[in-house]
Amino acid sequence: MHWCHVLVISNPSADRRACADACPPDAAPLNCRQALTLGPRLLLTSGWPWRSLGYLSCGGAVVFLIMAAAMNGLIYVDNLPDYAQLMVVVVLAAATGMPVAAVERLRLRIVDTERVGNPHVAPDAPGLKAWLWLRIGEAATWREFSYAIALTAVLPLIDFGGVLLVGSVVILIAAPFLEPFVDLGPLIVFGHWHIATPLDRVLVVLVGLVLLPAAAYLVTALAAGRAAFVRLLLAPRESEVVARVQELTRSRIRLADAFEAERKRIERDLHDGAQQRLVGLIMTLGIVEHGLEEERSDRAVLVAKARKEAEGVLADLRELIRGIHPQLLTDRGVPAAVAEIADRSPVPVHVDITLPERLVSAVETVAYFAVKEALTNVVKHSGARRAWVTGCREGDRLVLCVGDDGVGGARPEDGRGLQGLADRVAVVGGRLKLLSPSGGPTELVVELPWRTPDSA
Amino acid sequence: MANARFRIVLAEDAVLLREGLVELLERFGHETVAAVGDSRDLIKAVEEHRPDIVVTDVRMPPDFNDDGLRSAMDLRARYPELAVLVLTQYAATAYAFELLESGEHSRGGLGYLLKDRIGGVAEFLAAIECVATGGTVIDPEVVRQLLRRGQMNEPLGRLSSREREVLGLMAEGKTNANIAAALCVSQPTVAKNIGSIFLKLGLSEDDGHRRVLAVLTYLRS
Fold first, then answer.
1. Which of B21, B119, B145 is opposite residue A311, by nearest beta carbon?
2. Nearest to A52 by CA among A209, A227, A169
3. pTM
4. What ipTM was predicted for this assembly?
5. Mean pLDDT per 10-residue run, chain A (456 residues)?
6. Does residue B147 sit in the same domain as residue B126?
7. CA distance A292 to chain B (A)
């Protein structure tokens, strides 16, 4: 049995987050925080300490760049009065928040495989003013600003501490090799003790080797702490994610509506253009043919043949137009249009759809094409002798069921048809359920909202 | 072949096609008293000219949906004697049935044909004459769909293949003589077939329009 549920509003990033915090023991770590649960040998052979070190090192580079930019900026305002200079600094600092945050979210991927989304909302209106007002009103903007302050004030200490720690351990281990080039005397000093004998050198290397795993855990932990802080301030909050999902859902509905309008336009153009002209052509050929009827000549045969050809083209065109958007659906709604699909089906189909009123156009279209796709599958794959379509209103939903007495064993992942159907159904906030035990019968249940959110 | 001269109101929104149809009808001796491109004008033209037969498209202004069909149904309800031939791009049984069931008290002829049929000039003119004189003509494509729908119908399975052919032609609105000619058999043979069909399907032996309606209704159920 295979169930394919399509829910319109799901939050995949939240689901994965939950999984990321409780990672199964044998799975590879997704971030440096999970890497801390690895044993020393695994941690040292994994890339995580290196990634952590790299993360902390390039943090310093970001701070350096910000500082350099700020100094540069201040040179230009040097001759302004002090309060103006202060204003410029504040504005510049606030302005750095967003690009710094963008870089930091990108940089976070060094120690965390899961992307951090952009917490900002796309502006509704064009223009700088609308953008500026939107950003000033967003909590995300101010969180980013506060992060930028922390980055220039406190965070480099952590970054530098981590790098220094690892550097020290590396120097200990590498001491015998460095000695010919560098004077280690002032570098490796413990109280009054310093390297004097060959035994001291061995001792220093041994201490370095013992400290190495500790340094690896520490640097990874520091990176994990930094990463958590970045997430806390720069990742979208739950409400921002929901707003984003709503925005995406709305834009998807708009897209589907535009697609639908385009289909209707193509259908109308074909009907008013090519179809009418073909009828005209057929009529003219018919008149010529009629005039030549007595003749029994080759000419008459050719004209008759030409008319048959034109009629064939018109029939093809009619099929094509029906496939794009059937007029019967626009005029009479789902029951009549589905009955027409049934009339054309090679497998006998019993239709029983009773609806109290017309649905909104978007839902009607999805319902129609869902049944059409399902019946196409019945004909193609099921080997059924008969099929049935039922439909009724249940509460605020339209429930359609397409069944057949075929071989069953249909799976949602077979082919693109069902997946495409699931996507179409999801756009209007519906869902799809496939029940197809091996040996049959197969039933596809499509649930659609009676009204789409936008039409209410 | 149509020798009778009918007064026709034509409604078709595609200008070229409308002009072509007017030319065709005039060429074969009919009088097009009005040719309009809008379903509201159709009603006005019928009120004004009281034609023998209305020939109309389905999809027309003002709404470009089924305006022509709805006007045709209104006219059938208002003028019981008026014959109506609908020319369409849609081989949909739903439209055909709405038309058939409209105008309860109408005695006028009725036709529902695909526009392709205009090309078979002789048959098309015969269809106009049939409808104008009170007959019924249903497009073979529509009937084919209905017969397919009837596949699930158990009594239909008891018909012989010849009887099913006869049933299809009856549904198209053919008279016994037409059926006999189409199948190259004698009229008494056709009459016998029809008797057998009605017996097997449990229908009463009506004639003309009522026979078509009975057959089509049976096929649809």
1. B119
2. A227
3. 0.68
4. 0.89
5. 35 39 61 87 88 88 77 73 75 77 90 86 83 86 87 83 86 78 68 72 85 89 91 86 84 87 93 93 94 86 94 94 91 93 90 93 92 91 92 94 90 74 88 88 93 60
6. no
7. 12
